[in-house]
Amino acid sequence: MKMHNYLHRFLAAGMTAIITLSLCTGALAESYTANIMRLLNYEGDVRIVDENGEYGFLMENMRLNNGESLSTGGKSLASVGLDSSKILTLDAMTQVLFETVKNQMKLTLASGRLLLDVQEKLDENESLDIQTSTMVVGIRGTVVHVTSFDGSEDDINRQLLEANPTFQELLLKMLPDNIDGNISQLVVLEGTAEVTYQDENGVSRTILVNAGEKITLVDRNQDNRADGAAAVMPAEKSDLGEETVDFIRGNPKLLKRLQMRVTF
Which domains does the chain have, with CATH numbers? Predict the structure, then answer.
């Protein structure tokens, strides 16, 4: 129970940062919108909590409602269907919140790792953005993996990292000296994503990241600015974590689409 108290404290802390960032930028904060969201399947330690803080009963294909939050523990996964052509997979130690905004559902990421598969290209009137503390990712039709970590809550993050060694390994690779500040990484597995971020001088920059590439942005001062110049580099299987790699390997159609870019 102590671990889950940490999870929900962490979710609340992440939401505070997200709301503040939204007021400053006017952008969607780490969000995905859809008319209907359903929990497709899950494994391991997965909890759903309603807006009153009460734990809910989980079952596959259940509809996710306004104000509910979903959290995964160590070595756990959960897949959520967004309408009929988008699948979002929560990796271990990931927390999200579902809200209704103008008759649409919004999924907000507090911290953790997500795999987003947009199976059909969005039309000209649709847009899908993912925002972290250091980047905004514009998506039309692609497969991306996003890592978001807020290093401001030391006690909570210690629990998160101890429960998820693969997440800790990834963060240490990003920051070999120590884990602090806000860290965001985008890995594009199919298609192209457009990343907008603020450099260390507060100037807005936009860069394209293609399939097989990744971009990592670090904000040590937690001022929504990247430390130094952003560099696009080749993606590696280790960027995704063991649980996500196993998930892709277990989905033959998805694996066939992606293995041309990254060796699984």
Answer: 2-258 (2.60.120.1440)
